[in-house]
Design goal:
Strand content: under 5%
GO cellular component, one term: early endosome
Keywords: Coiled coil, Lipid-binding, Membrane
Oligomer: single chain
Distance between the termini: 112 Å
Shape: rod-shaped
Membrane topology: Peripheral membrane protein
Number of helices: 7
Order of helices and strands: HHHHHHH
CATH superfamily of the largest domain: Arfaptin homology (AH) domain/BAR domain
Number of strands: 0
Structural class: mainly alpha
CATH class of the largest domain: Mainly Alpha
GO molecular function, one term: lipid binding
CATH architecture of the largest domain: Up-down Bundle
CATH topology of the largest domain: Substrate Binding Domain Of Dnak, Chain:A, Domain 2
Main location: membrane
Largest sheet: none
Amino acid sequence: EYVEELNDWSPVYTLWSNSEDKLTPALLTMSRAIEANCVAIKESIDEIEESFCQPLKEYMLYTEAVKTVLRRRDAIQAEYDWTIDELDKKKDEREQLKVSDQSFSLGAFLGKDPDDVKQQKQIKLEKNIHELTQNVEILNDKSACANADLKADMERWHKTKHRDLREIFVALADKQVERYEKCLHAWEDAIRRIQANTDITKPTCDEIQTIAEVSDSISPQLTPSHVMSVDTDGDTGAEAACVDADADGDHPAVPPLPPKDVFEGSAKGDGGDTSTANNTGNNNNNNNRSST
């Protein structure tokens, strides 16, 4: 039932992502995590069915076999008890026959000698007692052998049962731990993916380089700290930003920008050319006045 509910939740997140553009990566990540949990639980159920339920079913069948053996042993014991009771009855009849004169017996009424009737009964009782005694000895030996064999089998079965059940439950615990590890890994991976998708977007190296090229014309009010700054070593903030961006792995590194003195030198060179042009113009004006 739990797996069926998870299977129902996975497409729900997938359909939800179609209507939420901003939440699409997070919802799809949740859907994949739920699917991974479903797969892990299904694998665990299949392994439990094979490595846990099947051995328990075999032990249940073996238990039924043990019950059958015990019933057969109880039948032997019941037959032994019945034979002992019959032997005791025959012995009591023999003792009563010794003190009886058999004058009121059926044979005496039919005209037989009471002593002959008594003697015949004694012979019959002795024969029955002898047969019952032999049966008692046989059943006693049979019952003793059955008890000894059953006891040995039960002791061996209990030892095997304890060992097998311990291995079965330890294997079950290992499978459960493995399942929980898979589910935990799926959710941890989902959390990392969701956090990665919600990070602030950083400027690319091309954007940083473009800003650096026009940095000399940017006013202080329009110069944010992450766009253009000069440190004490003379390196530009654009170079540091590109290095940081490359360390984060968001975009490839770009070649470092030239140091500050290059920009200053070019600026000074431009200024020198301007002053030279001005001096040349002044000299030309003076020469014209002199000629006039």
